[in-house]
Amino acid sequence: MKLVLITGASSGIGQALAARFYQAGYRLALVARRTGDIASWAQTQGFAAERVGVYAADVRQPDSIIAAARDCIAKQGVPDVVIANAGISVGIDTAEYEDLEVMRATFETNNLGVAATFHPFVKPMRERRSGTLVGIASVAAIRGLPGHGAYCASKAAVVSYCESLRGECRPFGVKVVTVVPGYVATPLTAGNTYPMPFLMTPDEFADRAFAAIEAGASYRVIPWQMGVVAKLLRLLPNALFDRVLAGRGRKKRQGEA
Questions:
Q1: Active-site choice (26, 151, 161, 183)
Q2: Which residues, in sequence order, are bridge partners of residue 179?
């Protein structure tokens, strides 16, 4: 029975992906800071205890996630799929000193956390000559949005990092998949005050992401309509792009109502 490891599995996209992979017959290795929430949720779902491992880790702390990964390998084996899903999204204003710390936390979670999650599995997967590493990016990676500088920059970095890693792992039979969600109705988007076209439920997203991962797609925007919109925005000259975004609501800063 195949094994998938998912970070940020206590809510939102991570939780929906866990349910979808379980439905497909996978064993689960679920990683989050709130392990009690994961265990309670898995029990509520009726998941067989022998198919679910729960591990506590903070992806901002490399030693923490690496220890959880090694614990997983010792107890459940090397996963077939590793999904670096844990991420945060908080608005910033560069004029505010305290928001520099928010930017640091965003990059530690969304970028260092991805690399630290993959790190313990790269060598074992290369030696086995099989496995799939999945980075969860965002359409926010395509262009910078007002108030969203930290998140947009971090997700653009996820895209580039996974592209680099894909080239490094390809000769060893290890796949690297970049999944690029549009707007998904999760706690990360609940406070957004601006329009969110093609908003999806976590379950809808998980179904499409599962298909992309199983197919070994190198890069997949979900839903595809959001990919078209994002690419059109990428092609817009800066002057026109700035006009389109004029008056658009900013991402809320930490602590803003």
A1: 151
A2: 136, 220
